[in-house]
Specification:
alpha+beta; Hemagglutinin Ectodomain, Chain B; Nucleotide Exchange Factor Grpe, Chain A, domain 2; 2 domains; three-stranded antiparallel beta sheet; 6 strands; 53% helix; 18% strand
């Protein structure tokens, strides 16, 4: 549309840049871009979901493999316990020696897994590494010293299976 003087189109038509079907083309272009963006969003969500599922499957596989490796290390211990039971009628000293050997084998497995046995007798009580079961007066050692270990700890202070259960010296 032009004004009566035959010059330029009215200001509104110049600002929108549309004359007739131009506005419809812009709307169609925007709709197409919106549809494409929506499609990209759906694809990204599907890819994120697939990645999450792959990660879950990988973690499950790794956990299964770790359990299998640990179980394999314990099989010889179980085998030796079964052998010891088969010879239960043997002389008591022989049985005791066999049990000690199997116990050492189990301790070796724990050590290889990163959980060595700790003997904390004589150490200073540390609540992050020890669980005090009792306190006793013992004039031979300073208060706060571990007098005896009822159950040993396994592992290092940062990665322990359990704290040591101990008896701690107390002041008179």
């Amino acid at each position: 549309m032009t004004d009566s003087s035959g010059g330029e189109p009215p200001q509104a038509e110049r600002d929108t840049g549309t004359e007739g079907g131009g506005e419809a083309a812009t709307v169609a272009d925007l709709k197409a871009r919106l549809a494409e963006a929506e499609d990209q969003k759906l694809r990204a969500l599907a890819e994120a979901d697939n990645t999450r599922k792959r990660c879950v499957a990988q973690v499950q596989r790794a956990e299964t493999e770790a359990r299998t490796r640990v179980a394999r290390q314990w099989l010889p211990v179980v085998d030796n316990l079964e052998r010891a039971l088969e010879h239960a009628q043997a002389e008591p000293q022989t049985i005791i020696e066999g049990i000690r050997a199997v116990r050492q084998q189990a301790l070796d497995v724990l050590d290889r897994l990163g959980y060595p046995r700790r003997d904390d007798t004589g150490a200073v009580f540390d609540p992050t590494r020890h669980e005090a079961i009792a306190a006793m007066t013992d004039p031979r050692v300073p208060p706060g010293t571990i007098i005896s270990v009822l159950l040993p700890a396994y592992g290092d202070p940062d990665h322990q299976l359990r704290p040591a259960q101990v008896v701690v010296a107390k002041a008179d």
